[in-house]
């Protein structure tokens, strides 16, 4: 069928399988163009492997280091006349490319927060790989059903301690307006920490270690964000920031537990990028559109694949010590946070209006990245051609 983008609010309800496949191929080509990663990972589990930073982590491991990969994600498959979710098509394309390159790749589609999916993953590692040497934790979810209590927790994006008011943009229309967000109550903070904090990451590592499927010297990494002063009240000092504080603290707990197998646990602080998760956060799209403009002008712009490729080559797998900041975190947001970049964003932030944003910001780049997430507006794809929506993932029948 002919597949077109169908928008509802900040969400696109359709996805294009051919465009998604082209995105995956482009990411693979990028990694291959940088050559092999010396001493890279060989058997890799990626939790949250179908989109964003997790997909880039899977691609970088497979095509930079010939790694066997197991990807866990929660995506919707296609039905007759209905497209799958983008992560489904990404994963189908990833497996096709990996298998064509002679690489092991299998996927598990289900709720990573559940005991069942953890057990299924352990069984698959035991059967096929024996052990894994890298576990990437890259979940972004608005909800988590707690596996012990059965309670469904919802995360929120709220400031703590006071009302937040600042500029935001509707990136579809380009309209800059003022957004006001009421402060969180204690329960919002607790719920957000339960969903996006480190508890589930620790549960995964405990389960994997107890099952004996973590290799001697295994590494695990989870992703965090800090960002600029303009988003601080709603992001890093808001409910999601509390969850990130918790995630970062959990890295030290996990590192302690991995000492007896000489393992390591890290949090990597990544750059702000257009993903399904970040598009839903007020203020962030305006910040990103200004940031992109400046970083592109300075030749510093990166997407998820450039970020993760750099994480592997220049942080995790240099063969030497992993460089970390004073809080023990890996920083690949270093270019975003450069003083000159941030000073220019802060200046443009004050100037930004509906009238000038298309010029002073990279609204076009934001929109393009957003549509690309769903496989639309990807270069070299013929969108007028019939596309088969019923694409299978090789390992999921
Ligand atoms: P994303 O939405 O692109 O990816 C989320 C992944 O989690 C997908 O593979 C999805 O299928 C999976 N997932 C969600 N719920 C699941 C569940 N219940 N069970 C199994 N899989 C599930 O998100 P992203 O932007 O790549 O975020 C990944 C991590 O990176 C998050 O911790 C996020 O905070 C962090 N991060 C994001 C940014 C950014 O700007 N996007 C910046 C820095 C750090
Ligand atoms: Na991800």
Automatic annotation (TrEMBL):
Q: Where in this chain does the record put each Trans-2-enoyl-CoA reductase-like NAD(P)H binding domain?
A: 2-79
Q: Which Gene3D superfamilies match?
A: NAD(P)-binding Rossmann-like Domain
Boundaries of each Trans-2-enoyl-CoA reductase catalytic domain copy?
82-317
- What is any Pfam family matched here? Enoyl_reductase
Question: InterPro entries per the record?
Answer: Eno_Rdtase_FAD-bd_dom, Enoyl-CoA_Rdtase_cat_dom, FabV-like_NADH_b, Trans-2-enoyl-CoA_reductase
What keywords are annotated for this sequence in UniProt? Fatty acid biosynthesis, Fatty acid metabolism, Lipid biosynthesis, Lipid metabolism, NAD, Oxidoreductase
Q: Which residues form the Enoyl reductase FAD binding domain?
A: 324-386
Pathway recorded for this protein = Lipid metabolism; fatty acid biosynthesis
- The EC number(s) given in the record are 1.3.1.9
Q: Which GO terms describe its molecular function?
A: enoyl-[acyl-carrier-protein] reductase (NADH) activity; NAD binding; trans-2-enoyl-CoA reductase (NADH) activity
Active site per database record: 235
Q: Which residues does the annotation say bind substrate?
A: 225
Site residues (Plays an important role in discriminating NADH against NADPH), renumbered to this chain: 75
Which biological process terms from the Gene Ontology are attached to this UniProt entry?
Answer: fatty acid biosynthetic process
- Keyword Iron in the entry? The reply is no
Return the broad EC class: oxidoreductase
Could you say which residues bind NAD(+) here?
48-53, 74-75, 111-112, 139-140, 244, 273-275
Its biological purpose is as follows: Involved in the final reduction of the elongation cycle of fatty acid synthesis (FAS II). Catalyzes the reduction of a carbon-carbon double bond in an enoyl moiety that is covalently linked to an acyl carrier protein (ACP).
Q: How does it assemble?
A: Monomer.
Q: Which family does it belong to?
A: Belongs to the TER reductase family.
HAMAP family per record:
FabV_reductase
Q: What is this protein called?
A: Enoyl-[acyl-carrier-protein] reductase [NADH]
